[in-house]
Amino acid sequence: MIEATGLTKRYGKTVAVDDLSFTVAPGRVTGFLGPNGAGKSTTMRMILGLDRPTAGRVLIDGRDYRDLHRPLVEIGALLDAKWVHPNRSGHAHLRWLARSNGLPARRVDEVLDLVGLTGPAKRRAGGYSLGMQQRLGIAGALLGDPKILLFDEPVNGLDPEGILWIRRLLHRLADEGRTVFVSSHLLSEMAQTAHELVVIGKGRLIAQTSTEQVIRDATEDTVRVRSPHVDRLLPLLTGESARVVELDGAVVVHGLQAGRIGELAASNGITLHELSPQRGSLEEAFMRLTRESVEYHAGE
Ligand SMILES: Nc1ncnc2c1ncn2[C@@H]1O[C@H](COP(=O)(O)OP(=O)(O)OP(=O)(O)O)[C@@H](O)[C@H]1O
């Protein structure tokens, strides 16, 4: 469990994190979302004791990071996959990490196997692809078999197979009862990966709830309808106070359920070629929620 209370970080006049309170529960994947500069990395650094809060605090299973006796056993993190000496092999990097944290050497082979990096482990890390670097970073986070895991942009630059692999890994870690906190700008991926979301903008909390609820609250479900008799259908829909927008030869209906539209069509002998409920996306929800918090809009 991660608990942030009134967490605040100022750099001179910049308020990077502003009175932020949230909790990250075990057994779930919690996504950490926010526009560029929202304060996600700063928050993660404070969780890991790499930055000292100006005010407020963040606790890891009830304790401050600085009070953890063997941090890697309690909390593992991937903050920057490039944080590896380029001339060291992946294996040597992990062995050094294990030794400096009092972890057994056999754990190195275990985590290399877990992330599928056993083959190239003896090659110099400077020659690793981005995907291999991410896997090595994740191996480092898993080294101490911690109950809490933090991943900052783990799918950054990965190919579809790598992204799918990360999604499955995060789900497995959560299923094992771990606390998994992960930031990403890939919203379609987060919609499939995260059970819960913490959304911030300009350092402040915008939403903390389930991914489904975030989408439901910030978007409107619509129904897409195609019919050869649109002219007869439209007055029936607007007669029930629905709002209709014609788009690409179809009608997008706001404010009326698919079932009711089907009933109206059937009882009036109107043929339908399509009747498909459309769910709002996390992208739409995110845009709406963070509209006020984006520092720079395109075209400015
Ligand atoms: N060491 C620092 N000194 C001064 N300002 C900083 C420092 N680190 C971060 N900031 C500022 O704090 C704010 C939050 O930055 P942060 O990197 O935490 O955001 P982020 O949500 O991780 O952004 P991104 O999605 O672009 O990675 C930004 O305005 C940034 O410029």
Description:
A hairpin with a 2-residue loop joins strand 11 (243-247) and strand 12 (250-254). The chain is an alpha/beta fold and 300 residues long. The protein contains eleven helices and 13 strands. It has helices at residues 40-47, 71-74, 90-100, 106-114, 130-142, 160-175, 187-193, 211-218, 230-238, 258-267, 282-290; strands spanning 2-11, 14-24, 29-33, 55-60, 75-78, 148-152, 179-183, 196-201, 204-210, 222-226, 243-247, 250-254, 274-278. It starts with a strand and ends in a 10-residue tail after the last helix. Strands 5-6-7-3-8-9 form a six-stranded mixed β-sheet, sandwiched between helices. Helix 3 packs across helix 4. It has two domains: 2-216, Rossmann fold; 220-278, 2-Layer Sandwich (Alpha-Beta Plaits). The structure holds adenosine-5'-triphosphate (ATP). Residues 11, 14, 16, 34, 36-42 line the site of adenosine-5'-triphosphate (ATP). GO terms for molecular function: ATP binding; ATP hydrolysis activity. It comes from Saccharothrix violaceirubra. Residues 2-227 form the ABC transporter domain. Keywords: ATP-binding, Nucleotide-binding, Transport. It holds the Pfam family ABC_tran.
